[in-house]
From TrEMBL, chain A:
<dbReference type="GO" id="GO:0016740">
    <property type="term" value="F:transferase activity"/>
</dbReference>
<dbReference type="InterPro" id="IPR042072">
    <property type="entry name" value="DsrC-like_C"/>
</dbReference>
<dbReference type="InterPro" id="IPR043163">
    <property type="entry name" value="DsrC-like_N"/>
</dbReference>
<comment type="similarity">
    <text>Belongs to the dsrC/tusE family.</text>
</comment>
<dbReference type="InterPro" id="IPR007453">
    <property type="entry name" value="DsrC/TusE"/>
</dbReference>
<dbReference type="GO" id="GO:0097163">
    <property type="term" value="F:sulfur carrier activity"/>
</dbReference>
<dbReference type="GO" id="GO:0002143">
    <property type="term" value="P:tRNA wobble position uridine thiolation"/>
</dbReference>
<protein>
    <recommendedName>
        <fullName>Sulfurtransferase</fullName>
        <ecNumber>2.8.1.-</ecNumber>
    </recommendedName>
</protein>
<feature type="active site" description="Cysteine persulfide intermediate">
    <location>
        <position position="109"/>
    </location>
</feature>
From TrEMBL, chain B:
<keyword id="KW-0408">Iron</keyword>
<dbReference type="GO" id="GO:0051539">
    <property type="term" value="F:4 iron, 4 sulfur cluster binding"/>
</dbReference>
<keyword id="KW-0249">Electron transport</keyword>
<dbReference type="InterPro" id="IPR009051">
    <property type="entry name" value="Helical_ferredxn"/>
</dbReference>
<keyword id="KW-0411">Iron-sulfur</keyword>
<keyword id="KW-0472">Membrane</keyword>
<keyword id="KW-0812">Transmembrane</keyword>
<dbReference type="Pfam" id="PF13183">
    <property type="entry name" value="Fer4_8"/>
</dbReference>
<dbReference type="InterPro" id="IPR017896">
    <property type="entry name" value="4Fe4S_Fe-S-bd"/>
</dbReference>
Length: 110, 515
């Protein structure tokens, strides 16, 4: 189902992940979040931006531990855990946050 | 926890056999694989006009190849022993989730085209007289729906007086569907990634290396000991093959940290492999011998290339089934490995041996903040063994847990050992598009867990399968529990294991403060 962002159309797959990561722009995350009735705060953007940086380097979303470690370094130890991330992204940081960031869905036994 | 628009079963003291409600799950089906996910596995991209011929050809081929399937098609007497044994039936009330009824979706077509009675009455226009049915296009959709409401856990088979293996029927149905062009997106996309990148996640070598370096840092920070998590190290004694979820997800990664610590203390050299960075073998889930073989061969190739002497498997349920039961047939002979050790070996066998030898300095009180129970994973429980005694697959994990934890309680005996209930997400169902069946199918296990929580103060459940761990992480909150109540067995080992020369992070802080 394609999504409309600022008058532009973005193709997505069956599960709502962006078909082409290179087309991503911040508005994509905003629109996706709105559909989930979620308001994106700076905390959300910290995660989304980190995911995109990591993906650019490694062509994969970061492991949960890599992500929590990065959060811990940036925002303090008490936030460096999955609970904090699930608080921000109730569908799971790997899946919901990756979708907002335009990354492909992590597959496998996760 | 995400919101859902269906009812979550309410946990009762006992799981009651529900009154039937036809069609409650008829809407459930996973995404169909697009041609790009079908073709790399050798399947036709989409359904063609000759779907009927293809279906019957595929069924005939499978019946000829697998004598078991033929026997299972013929021998069911509809006694009903299996009906209330399936977690998906118990959780959904849908009569087609009674194993006998689900099997019959295919069996009635088998009877029509492959038995004398079916052919005879079929020609007279009354196949139903002998429990047979003409194959119609809608049947394939129904198969696709209900054969993805079976996790191939084989609990029903334990109770079948004829030993009919429901998983074999589900696997055959999925293989037939894939050959007709109706493959499952989740499994087939993943298998494609294994071929292309080396693991289910699609984790490339550099990302894997970075993740492992991160673990080395973490362990050193916590313990002051440099424990290595080597990748592609030629000449290592042991090749560890573990599910890629162990690199990626929680609590899986805590288990991986534990394997590394055990190897370190045992003083053996070991390595992971980039190309065989996956224990899982989804070829089994889709019932494809060819794909299962191709996936298995990567392990052989990696073992030869790295020159290892032993192969050890990490905590992964169906991987251990493929490894223990089929690896030698699929990818053997493994005559280049050290015959002194089992080929392959399970990480729990390795750890239990070390515990018995006394090489590990364990302090179970380090797990005193938890009271544990253990979830037997279906594939390990009903399709494999560990150690050299019958039932080792049940006793060895418990022995290891009890060696590293002071507080341990088993769940209801009807829900453990060979009667264990599936987590609800096995057999290729661990995907978001099947969340409803996953949540509902988890109900029997959640009931047993809830009972030991209330009666015995259990706080955590340990598991030895990547799928179980991910599934429980997801469904626990729907049943009023916390996602981190599921732990890896080697996470418990890791907590209790005091490394040689270990200085605890907290002690260090205290020392610094004192100084």
């Amino acid at each position: 189902m394609p999504i409309e962002v600022n008058g532009k159309t973005f193709e997505t797959d069956e599960e709502g992940y962006l078909a082409n990561i290179n087309e991503w722009e911040p508005g994509v995350a905003e629109v996706m979040a709105k559909e989930d009735e979620l308001e994106l705060t700076d905390e959300h953007w910290d995660i989304i931006n980190f995911l995109r940086e990591y993906y650019e380097e490694y062509q994969i979303a970061p492991a949960v531990r890599v992500l929590t470690k990065a959060v811990s370094k940036k925002l303090g130890k008490e936030k460096g855990n999955s609970k904090y991330l699930y608080g921000l992204f109730p569908y799971g940081p790997g899946k919901q946050a990756c979708r907002y960031a335009g990354l492909p869905k992590p597959t496998g036994c996760v | 926890m995400a919101k859902v628009d269906y009812e979550i079963p309410e946990l009762q003291e006992y799981v009651e056999v529900p009154e039937l409600e036809s069609g409650t799950m008829a809407h459930s089906a996973p995404y169909v694989a697009k041609p790009e996910f079908q073709e790399p596995l050798g399947y036709v991209g989409e359904v063609q006009d000759d779907w009927k011929e293809k279906t019957l050809d595929a069924m005939g081929d499978m019946l000829g190849k697998y004598r078991g399937l033929q026997v299972f098609m013929d021998s069911c007497v509809k006694c009903g022993s299996c009906t209330d044994k399936c977690h998906y039936y118990l959780g959904t009330k849908d009569p087609l989730n009674m194993p006998v009824a689900r099997q019959d979706l295919m069996r009635r077509v088998y009877r029509r085209y492959f038995t004398f009675a079916g052919k005879f009455f079929g020609k007279l226009g009354m196949p139903e007289f002998v429990g047979a049915k003409e194959l119609e296009r809608e049947d394939l959709d129904e198969w696709f729906s209900y054969y993805h409401q079976c996790s191939q856990c084989r609990r029903c088979s334990v109770f079948c007086p004829y030993g009919i293996d429901t998983a074999e029927i589900t696997m055959a149905a999925r293989e037939i569907l894939a050959r007709v062009g109706i493959g499952q997106k989740y499994s087939n996309e993943i298998i494609g990634k294994v071929y292309k990148i080396g693991n289910n996640l699609g984790l490339p070598g550099p990302a894997l290396e970075d993740t492992l370096e991160g673990l080395e840092e973490d362990v050193e920070d916590e313990t002051g000991v440099k424990v290595l998590y080597p990748l592609d190290k030629k000449g290592a004694d042991i090749l560890l093959v573990t599910p890629s979820a162990d690199f990626f997800a929680e609590p899986h990664v805590d288990g991986l940290i534990g394997y590394g610590k055990v190897f370190h203390e045992a003083g053996v050299s070991w390595t992971l492999s980039t190309t065989a960075s996956e224990a899982a073998n989804f070829g089994m889930f889709i019932g494809s011998y060819e794909n299962m073989r191709k996936i298995s061969l990567r392990i052989r190739e990696a073992a030869l290339e790295l020159g290892v002497k032993r192969i050890v498997f990490g905590e992964c349920g169906h991987a251990w089934r493929v490894a223990y039961s089929f690896l030698n047939t699929l990818a053997g002979p493994f005559d280049f490995l050290d015959p002194e050790y089992p080929v392959p070996q399970h990480i729990l066998e390795f750890t239990w041996n070390e515990i018995q030898k006394g090489t590990l300095n364990l302090d179970p009180s380090r797990n005193d903040d938890m009271t544990l129970t253990f979830h037997d994973s279906c594939n390990v429980a009903r399709a494999t063994r560990m150690g050299d005694e019958p039932g080792g697959q049940f006793t060895i994990p418990r022995n290891v847990i009890k060696s590293v934890c002071n507080n341990y309680v088993d769940m209801d005996p009807d829900t453990i050992y060979e009667k264990t209930f599936c987590c609800g997400g096995g057999g290729g169902l661990l995907t978001d598009d099947l969340m409803e069946i996953r949540i509902k199918g988890g109900m029997p296990r959640m009931t047993a867990l809830n009972n030991v929580i209330e009666e015995s103060g259990v706080t955590h459940m340990a598991a030895i399968c990547a799928i179980c761990k991910s599934q429980f992480t997801k469904i626990l909150p729907y049943y009023g529990m916390e996602m981190d109540q599921i732990v890896s067995v080697h996470q418990l080992v890791s907590n209790a294991l005091i490394l040689t020369g270990q200085v605890d992070e907290d002690d260090e802080d205290t020392d610094e403060e004192a100084a």
